[in-house]
Amino acid sequence: MGVSFKRPGALQQASSGRAQHAWVLWRYWMLREFKTRYAGSVLGLAWAFVQPLATLAIFYVLFGMVLAVRVPGLDLANGYLLHLLAGLAVWLPFTDAIGRGVGCLAAYEDFLRKQPMPAEILPAVAVGGSLLVMAIGYALFLVLSLMQGAPLRATWAWLPLLVLAQVALTFGLTLLLSMAHFLWRDVGSIVAFALQLWFYLTPVVYPLAQVPERFHAWYLLNPVACLVLAVEWAVLGMAMPGGTLWALLAWTLLLGGGGWWFFRSMKAALGEAL
To answer: Helix, strand or coil for residue 215?
Structure first.
């Protein structure tokens, strides 16, 4: 009887110890990531602000001013700017995490061979490094939305869940692609091309309202498009195709859970390669 009572506590203590160890490692690698990312640059951490703002300015001048793209159904001052901000708040941290995470295992192969540690830390650091860009994007989007006359809606309460979904599916996809790239090095080149195509298949620089309605349902097959549409709905009250939130939930479970499962199932192959 004594053994049966102690075992759950021992398991809980071991699990807590592993979680604390992973947290310490993640913080150490995150600090290292920020130091090396901006080492030697004049602006340093300010690049985290400059790059999103420069991207926003380029797209707004080209599409909002030169091509005069408008957002049907969004009766706010500078409606296209707000639409663009919603899309970039989702897209920029997503591509930042994927771009840095896909090759993280291969880049630190020698380190993992000499200093064994939970390999999941490296993809988690790639995603963690994108959180600053995400925070800047969402903060700018929300502040400018209020300044341009967007009302404070009850649907804003969905934002924490949408951000959580974004982090979960980004982490799952980063896990999957980092392991796949380690095993099959062609994956990195495929991802670089796929991200360029993916951008134009996502309603970031153009509103979905300008796409023929018969194609709207196809956007539910794009998890990033589902996120963008859900964020615009939550903050700006824009219409989205029926089933968008259900599709987003499905993608979060599929990419988040599926990426974790694939990474864990292939760790034996990773260990053999190391």
So the answer is: helix
Q: What is the pTM of this model?
A: 0.87
Report the candidate in 271, 208, 251, 220 with the shortest Cα–Cα distance to residue 94: 251
Query: What are the C-alpha distances in Å from 232 to residues 13, 114, 222, 224?
Result: 43, 47, 16, 12
Q: What token pair was written down for 93?
A: 């941290």
Residue type for position 113: R
223 by Cβ neighbours in 10 Å (0-12 / 13-18 / 19+) ranks as buried
Q: Residue 98 has which token pair?
A: 């994927």
Please state, in angstroms and rounded to a whole number, the distance separating the CA atoms of residues 172 and 270: 17
Round the CA-based radius of gyration of the chain to a whole number and report it.
Answer: 21
C-alpha 43, offset from chain centre: 24
Q: How far apart are CA 274 and CA 132, in angstroms?
A: 32
- The pair of structure tokens assigned to 183 is 């095993």
DSSP for residue 218? G
pLDDT tens for each residue of the chain, 274 residues long:
444 444 655 555 555 666 776 777 778 777 877 777 766 565 566 766 778 888 889 998 988 888 888 888 787 778 899 999 999 999 999 999 999 999 999 888 888 887 777 888 999 999 998 998 899 999 999 999 999 888 899 999 999 999 999 999 999 999 999 999 999 989 989 999 999 999 999 999 999 999 999 999 999 999 999 999 999 999 999 999 999 999 999 999 999 999 999 999 998 877 766 5
